[in-house]
Each structure stands twice: as C-alpha cells, then as structure tokens.
Amino acid sequence: MSEKRSNLVSTIFNLDNGVMRFFSRVFDIVVLNLLFLIGCIPIVTIGASLTAMYSITLKMARNEESHIVRGFIKAFKLNFKQGTIVGMISIIIALFIIIDLKIISIIGDDKLKILQVLCYIVAIWAYIIALYSFPIIARFVHTTKEVFKNSFMISIVNFKWTILLILMNIPFISMLFYSEVSMLLLFTILIICGFSGLALIQSFIFRKIFDKYENYDVN
Q1: What is the pTM of this model?
Q2: Coil, strand or helix: which one is 44?
Q3: Fewer CB within a 10 Å sphere, N or C end of the chain?
Q4: 153-183 tens-digit pLDDT
Q5: HSE, side-chain direction, 13 A CA sphere, residue 78
Q6: Sign of torsion, CA 45 210 213 70?
C-alpha cells in the first residue's frame, strides 16, 4: 500500500506530468505578467516591455522558452531602443486621435462627422499596426521603418487572422464597460495574468503568420 502511495505521489509531482506542466505554465504566465508590468512603470518603456513579453510568448507557443526572467531581461535590453521608439510613436498617435475626437465632440458640429469617422478609421489601423509591430520586433530584425511597413502589409495579407486578433479584445472591452464589478474583475485579471495570457494566445496566431516569413533574419 505504501509503495502504491509513493508511486502516486511521485507521479503527481513528476515534472513531465500533464497537471504539473499546466501549473508550471500558469506560474510562468503570472511571472511574465509581473515582469511586463514592472517594465511598463516608466511609461516610456511600454514598447520595450511589450516586445520583451512577446519575445517570450512567441517561444512559449513552440515550447522553446527556457528561463522566463533571464529571457525577458535579455529581450528587454536587446530590443530596448527600437521597442521604446515604436511604443512612443504609438502612444503619441493615440494621444493625437483622442485629443482630436475630444475637440470634435466639444465643438459638436455635424460638418465634422466625416472628420470623426476618419479619426476612428485611423485609430483602427494604428491599433492594428501596433498589434503586429511588437511581435515583429521580437521575432525579426528590421529597421523601424520596415517594422511599420511590414506590420501594415502583413496585417492586410493575413486579414482573417487580423480580425481574429482584434476580436480577442472584445471580452476585455465588454468587461471594462459592463459594470463596476466586471471592471474590477478585469483589472484583477490584468494585474495577475491578463496581459501575458492574452499575448500567449495571440502568439499562437502570430507563429502561424510568421512561419511564412521565416526566411528573414530573426532575433
């Protein structure tokens, strides 16, 4: 009986056990989420932190990652300059769009409706380009100009996947505006594992997309 119990315990805590692999992955996601949030603290380094996070999740999608903390720090340093530049450009564009929409809303002139629609169109495409930019920086070696150009082109060529990537954000947006309770739950999820969890799910799609372009130099 004691031998059977011993075998059961060793099986449960065996690192090759499916349950242990699952909890190990959950732990990695939580740690990665914490690293991402710490990397975002100066605000201007959000882009570098996003790039480092995708560098890890893209490897997770193929079970290629090794040490999460060391891998994140290495990717953060390696892509710091480019990730920060792309991140700041994305933030500036977002701020301009928000300010323009606010001004149009305050003026309230029906003649500006077309301008408002154009702002929303630009906002959508800016988001799509940013969505692809950081995984591309994490995976490929490109100039900043090439990052934006390829993000735009790849998002169009793989439009069905692009739509799916956008739809993944709907549950988060719904929780944000549904109620105060759902908003609190959303913030809790984001703090614990939301950012890295979503990045990992997206990374399975990005790997499918990027497989077509693997002849390029990569990090």
Answers
A1: 0.87
A2: coil
A3: N
A4: 999 999 999 999 999 988 888 898 888 999 9
A5: 19
A6: positive
